[in-house]
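Our collaborator T.R. sent over the components below with a one-line note: 'Predict the complex.' Nothing else. No constraints on interfaces, no templates requested, no preferences about which chain binds where. So this is a plain run: every listed entity goes in together, and whatever single assembly comes back becomes the starting point for the next discussion.
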Amino acid sequence: METAFTPWQSLGGGALIGLSAVLLMGLHGRIFGATGILTGLIAPTSRPDFIWRAMLLLGMVSGPLLVLAVTGSMPAIDVPVSLVALLIGGFLVGVGVTFSSGCTSGHGVCGLARLSPRSLASVLTFMAATAATVFIIRHVIGA
Amino acid sequence: MRLLSLYLIGLVFGTGISISGMANPAKVLNFFDLAGTWDPSLAFVMGGAVIVTFIGYRFVLKRPMPVMEARFHLPTSRVIDTRLIGGSAVFGIGWGIAGFCPGGALPALGTGSPAVFIFVGALIAGILLARAISVSRTPRPATV
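Returned assembly:
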């Protein structure tokens, strides 16, 4: 399925993601990582640790509702994959990000911005693995 | 005040994700489909996010401490090992299969789309299993 190229929206959205990462570090001294936020909620180590992540998550899920309120339409979620693919993919993402200690937000945005060699190694690896997987699924298997 | 600021920071992130297209698997998968229906938008998301964070961190991390906390919590590990690379590779394979990453999927829960809830359910199962494996493998100090 084709999708429209949206450079300005994507750049603006990316800038907001960056702004939130800077604010979280400047005000609360934390890396903005979705993996860490979710893990800290399902396996909390302390009450304060749970609460700051819960507030962030509440804000995150409010994002699409703010977009709905301003533009009159929910952000598009087009899922060109099967239910089984969502389950297998979700499971693999969960296992992977636990071992790599981060994902697109933690390593990809905050880690690269800190010039962390670990994050650069992680990002290059997952980008290559994702591209290879999409190529195999779409052009080798032909799904 | 502290909790409200956390909520608003989450809201900025969730709004950015929503506008950028990172929460939309069709766009994400097309970014990686160079040989097919390529959509380069995601490069602009990552570019915008990394540039703003890079510049912002220069100012913020110069301060002795964050505004509302006693200290910065920064990762100190610099080890590039099989755990990091293997985990990243498995993450990438899963991202390529499903089209959602954690940062895209968590804000997308707010859309109420059932696909997002299915993905996040499987994501949580994967995190719990991986934690169980790594905890059981970690050598425990011998008890006297």
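Summary for T.R.: The longest helix of chain A spans residues 47-71.
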